[in-house]
């Protein structure tokens, strides 16, 4: 045994000795063989939402991805789920409803969906693609998907990679071209604590001595949610409501800045978080505000998605109070004067429902008369109200609706009964630049509550704006963060970097291996002769077959 070990070591040392002059060349060839992976591209991707509702896991349950990539192509007669263990790449506009269902049921390694650069503006998409996206959002929010699903906007480099993958599906020489590998290294973890931030400010009205004035409240929630929380900007849902609240605060701060033009009502402006989580911020604000203050609130107007052509005023019941009936008449009369399609919708509160249909219902539970103004005729499930396709509003329509709201509120708090009087015009009119800047700012930031830190740039901008135009500003998380207490649990890693690597195909390795082996064999023959080669051939043959070859 010792002699055999000594002989093997001697052979290795001798081989190293004869190879030393050529070691650089051999190592270069081996390096070329091993260096089959190279970084090709790094880009941002947005993962589908992952959350638990109680004990039910929902959404995209995986985030780690490390697999070879392939372009997706469904055969015409294929009806079963896809079973390719690769990261499939597909353009959103190439998906159909039936192929989407099979993809989500598949056992693929992962899915990358390329969004057109025109998103999030949905006007550029076909009706079929819009239907696919809506179906996708519904399924992810109501089912557990066991593959990592990522979205990204297609750029020039990704287009090149995708076209290369598509050519491999049809090219007979595709086995000699490079493969691609997609890698996302981080696995998602549950977010231990979700904080909800709300804030308020007041414009104090004129009240006689020793008499507390009534309050007219304007409320909007700022957050979004959706299937792709890192990509969903929610310009209409509810960026339009936020922009409107700030512009109304700016307009009425001018009127309330002079004692001669102050209204009899105090005006409270509430900007709440957690709107997509059963209006959690609004409910917390109502719970933490002193009952004596809430008793002064005569009416609360909630703004939610108000950039549409037609507006609906959602109320829980027909008003008994004469002032509130007069307010509703002002809404109808002003809408007719301005040519705005308008309708009051009565819907009783379903006390057995697990989530509220509209934000004003939170006030109704506190016996405060309230209504929600929206361009949506009916409520939809809260998590699905914000969509990745909500990327733009018609600013002219929003400003028209904003002027409509301002005029109605002014008529009410100043108790004017003179028809066709326009308060907000000229220097007191809607500031288009102010509204535009807020729409642009809101559409460039995601606002999903579970992923907003206390020092987020959005919350800081909200605070500064409200402090500028309102008094008695207060953030409810100034001393102690308000923690979300609900049945929902959310997971992080909604935005990540995906690394794309080029990988040489197996055929490349085999082709490269042949000259390397031939080169090594030639070196061995040159330095040790054919006798040595024949000797090792005989030893190997004898070991495996027991036959000693003849010379």
- Classify the beta-strand content into a percent band: 15-25%
Q: State the helical fraction.
A: 25-40%
Q: Return the structural class.
A: alpha/beta
Question: How large is the count of helical segments?
Answer: 14
Major sheet, described briefly? Answer: 8 strands, mixed
Q: Count of DSSP E strands?
A: 19
How far apart, in Å, are the first and last alpha carbons? Answer: 28 Å
If you average the pLDDT, what whole number results?
A: 83
| Major sheet strand order | 15-14-16-13-11-12-10-17
Rg (C-alpha, Å): 34 Å
Question: Which residues sit in consecutive blocks of at least 5 with pLDDT less than 50?
Answer: 1-22, 31-37, 76-81
Architecture overview:
It is a single chain. By secondary structure, this protein is of the alpha/beta class. It contains 14 helices and 19 strands. The protein has an 8-stranded mixed β-sheet, with helices on both faces. It has a 7-stranded mixed barrel with strand order 1-8-6-5-4-9-19. Strand 14, helix 9 and strand 15 (342-346) form a beta-alpha-beta unit. The two termini are 28 Å apart.
Q: What's the short story on this structure?
A:
The protein has 551 residues and is of the alpha/beta class. The protein has 14 helices and 19 strands.
